[in-house]
């Protein structure tokens, strides 16, 4: 038994025997817990009500978790286990999931915990919280994956995959699909390793054909597990990426395109920026027409105007023959620099300085005014203040010069000179 488990069943010491205490089912005695419980009594009288006791204990566990007091939380947990015997059927029914969530959190972070301790706890909770079997199995497998125990995780997922209890509900079906998908990810990992091994072999070598056949077997199993899940509305990024990589490897470009189009554009799926990123990268690998790439990034721009691909979007718009794209290119640059996380993006400032000059020289003053009118009340203090002049010049002189140029174009040449002098005065 681990040190952690031994601590949980620590016997009462002689010093504690003379004090009133709360005892757990295993005979543990916690005198300090008794004091806490007595503190909830009214009029100096101890409250013996079962619900009051478990409620107080739960509050103490939560407090200990918030303070990362893992040993104290574990001791409270021993007393809280009595909630599994609550006379209230509704509370008793929900108790196993609460015990599992609290207990797994404690065991995950407790310095004396071990994989063996976690495995024992998970197995017991699966039997107690029978309706939570699938959830517990999935979290158990993820815990084992975190510790690099891939074979053990695969065994847990395989057991859960075939488990059934009562009539099959929709929520149970989703969990089964999710479990199968995680099993698919493990199979993808094995496939990927074989792919790396294959890349090192000579195609004329006999070993190449054997390795190639093994890869094909793995891909078939993985495809079945992943394909089912990604057809269900949701955010399935790691599963989609793995599936697409396999489809592309075997030359199924049409299949990959269909999956990515559904993932990005199907209205049943939640809005997901990554779905459009994956589609764009796929189309880029396929050397799709510029118009198609622009149409994908335009939707991404509407969702995340500050995405790192927006500079690439600007370049595509700049190369387009359409005037509306040139106008949008200016809007995209302003949109990027609206965000605090992009204020020091020197590439964006260089692009804006250059594009502002081109736009003004092209007799499109109205485009600049349209973008500037909604920003002139806050951009000067947000980007061109005395503080930023000092900070930018100290950290990156090239950035300071580019911002000074943009300030001059937007606010006037005098402003550019003042901004430049302010930065030099330090």
Automatic annotation (TrEMBL):
Domain of life of the source: Eukaryota
Pfam family name, one: TAF1_subA
Protein's name in the database: TATA-box binding protein associated factor, RNA polymerase I subunit A
Ranges where the record places region Disordered: 1-20
Organism, scientific name: Bos taurus (Bovine)
A GO BP entry: transcription by RNA polymerase I
Annotated GO CC locations: RNA polymerase I transcription regulator complex
InterPro entries per UniProt: SL1/TIF-IB_Component, TAF1A
Native organism taxonomy: Eukaryota, Metazoa, Chordata, Craniata, Vertebrata
PANTHER family noted in UniProt: TATA BOX-BINDING PROTEIN ASSOCIATED FACTOR RNA POLYMERASE I SUBUNIT A (PTHR32122), TATA BOX-BINDING PROTEIN-ASSOCIATED FACTOR RNA POLYMERASE I SUBUNIT A (PTHR32122:SF1)
